[in-house]
Amino acid sequence: MNIQDKSLKFDFKELGLYQVRQYEHDISYHADIVALGLVRRLTHVALHLSKYAYGISLPRHHEKFQKDYTDSFVMIVSGANLLDIDLSEINKRNNFVEGGFLSNYLYFSSIFSKSCESYDHFEKHSFHQSWEESICNLFELFEQDSIQHNISLIKDANKRLDEVESKINSKNVVYSIKNKLRV
Fold it and tell me: Which among 75, 80, 81, 25 has a CA at the least distance from the CA of 53?
């Protein structure tokens, strides 16, 4: 796999529509997280990326790999929204390390997490720049990897949001009342 291929890009409109949907999804379905401060929300993203690391390490045909791969992308886009990054405007940095997809996922996720930890300890650290660079590099990694492996990642991410929204709605009393009133 050549993760250095700068020509691999998502469709501009499809990416933009997904990024907006992710933002609206987070506002509508994760009020508990939206209520947190920005740094705490970025830490939440870091925890999710860490949680998915095992699944990402499995063979690609494994169901857990496929789910965690998509969920990681969802969190990367959510992180980009928190940092006000228009993903369609990312200039290809390709600051990838040796070792392929997994090594790069772990590397950039760890840099993102280190920024959260450094903020907590009030260390001298360029937090914002580090968060932004990590998210951009993770995005580029997933963009190039999914295209090279013929994975419809934006379609998969939209499907995942549909599943999450359906699950949350099925437990929501207001949603249940609205459905009853439609009868």
Answer: 75
Which residue from 77, 72, 83, 90 is spatially nearest to 24, judged by alpha carbons?
A: 77
Q: pLDDT by residue (tens digit) across 94-120?
A: 678 888 999 999 999 999 999 888 877
Listed in sequence order, the residues at least 6 apart from 39 whose beta carbon sits closer than 8 Å to its beta carbon are: 116, 119, 127
Residue 84: which of 25, 174, 23 has the closest Cα? 23
**Ramachandran quadrant class, 178 (left: phi over 0; alpha: psi -120 to 50; beta: rest):** alpha
Number of alpha carbons in the 13 Å side-chain half-sphere of residue 91: 0
For the full predicted model, state whether its pTM sits above 0.70: yes
Which residues touch 54 (CB under 8 Å, ≥6 apart)?
64, 68
